[in-house]
Amino acid sequence: MDRVNAILRHPLFIVALEHLECYEKDRVFCGHGMDHLLDVARIAHAISLESDQRADKELLYAAALLHDIGRLRQYEDRTPHERESACIAAKILPECGFEDVETELIVDAILSHRTQSREKHGFAGYIYRADKLSRRCWECAADSDCNWEMKNTRLEY
């Protein structure tokens, strides 16, 4: 997990997360701060462990930590956050020791985390499912105002 810890210390990650958390500090709906990122990482890892196609824990955590990191750009100018997150990830990952093939896998998962993945049990699918399962809609004060079509009504992970 040394490379994941390098992501957490990377200046681009730190600044992007600080700006995002500051922007969302009064957000009524689901936030996208460190709690969410780590929930997605842990759930993706659990899903992977239950699968026949286990994924590398370090790669799952890297993808989870970076999957929403570009969200501030979406708030600013409506650029899809998965595109901005992928761009930021493509800069950070090589500097943290990830190889080209690993970076490509992670960036692909980030780009597809908002849409149903073609591969149900593959790496991108783990991130997609974990992102959706990380929300605790049943306890949210904004549940009646939220129009998210994939609300979680029960705990799975």
Would you mind describing this structure in some detail?
The chain is an all-alpha fold. The protein has a single domain (32-135, 151-157), classed as Orthogonal Bundle (Hypothetical protein af1432), CATH 1.10.3210. The protein has eight helices and no strands. The protein has helices spanning 2-9, 11-23, 34-49, 57-66, 71-77, 81-95, 100-111, 123-133. α1 (2-9) packs parallel to α4 (57-66).
Q: Which helices and strands, and how do they pair?
A:
Layout: H1 2-9, H2 11-23, H3 34-49, H4 57-66, H5 71-77, H6 81-95, H7 100-111, H8 123-133
Helix pairs in contact: 1-4, 3-4, 3-8, 4-7, 5-6, 6-7, 7-8
Shape: globular
Largest sheet: none
H and E string = HHHHHHHH
Helix content: 55-70%
- Rounded to an integer in angstroms, the radius of gyration calculated over CA atoms is 15 Å
CATH architecture: Orthogonal Bundle
**What gap, in angstroms, lies between the N and C termini?**
22 Å
Structural class: mainly alpha
CATH class: Mainly Alpha
Proportion in β-strands: under 5%
Structural domain tally: 1
The beta-strand count equals 0
**CATH fold assignment:** Hypothetical protein af1432
Number of helices: 8
User: What integer is the average pLDDT?
Assistant: 87
- Kindly report the name of the CATH homologous superfamily: Hypothetical protein af1432
Give the low-pLDDT segments: none
